[in-house]
Amino acid sequence: MFINWGNDFSHLIIWRCVNISKEFQINEQIRDKEVRVIDQDDNQLGVMSGREAQRLADERELDLVKISPNAKPPVCRILDYGKFRYEQSRKEKEAKKKQKVINIKEIRMSANVQEHDLDVKAKNCRKFLENGDRVKASVRFRGREMSYTNVGKDLLLKFAEKVSDVGKMEKPPRLEGRSMVINLVPLKENN
């Protein structure tokens, strides 16, 4: 038996090509009956029909942009759309510059680590803290070592003391499952 699918899947192809963006509706794309209008000087012109608002924007040789589509009635602003988009992109770039990525490096040890190994791990921790990263130092307990958590606590406090010139503990050592953990933060944040 042959089934004729015809153009049943064509709408899926079109749907996949639609690009969802954060663009604003401008000029003729605004089809609301009533809109609240604000001019380029931030003066409220009141509630008017969409056509009247469009005519007003055309008289001033500017664009009508729907700023808040979810408001009742929707809020539109009369402005230069090219300049508006430029300012929006600048604000987004400034916001991205101000964001700071916090990296957390992890250093793992066993409860019976030797002194030299502890010094090597402290040296690596010192590098991380000098670069401005946070460090999570953990001691893993295996088998019967769980009954000697005080050894791990002393080890972590000793470790924190070795790097105390470049970092400090956020909180005292705490038990997370079969590991005891401390978080170290740099003394001064690198900008």
From TrEMBL:
Molecular function via GO: ribosome binding; translation initiation factor activity
Keyword Protein biosynthesis: yes
SUPFAM superfamilies: Translation initiation factor IF3, C-terminal domain, Translation initiation factor IF3, N-terminal domain
GO biological process: ribosome disassembly
GO cellular component, one term: membrane
Keyword Cytoplasm in record: yes
Domain of life according to the entry: Bacteria
Entries under PROSITE patterns matching the protein: IF3
Residue ranges annotated for the Translation initiation factor 3 C-terminal domain, each copy included: 102-186
Cellular localisation: Cytoplasm
Subunit structure: Monomer.
Protein's job: IF-3 binds to the 30S ribosomal subunit and shifts the equilibrium between 70S ribosomes and their 50S and 30S subunits in favor of the free subunits, thus enhancing the availability of 30S subunits on which protein synthesis initiation begins.
Membership in a protein family: Belongs to the IF-3 family.
Name of this chain's protein: Translation initiation factor IF-3
Organism: Alkalibaculum bacchi
Organism ancestry: Bacteria, Bacillati, Bacillota, Clostridia, Eubacteriales
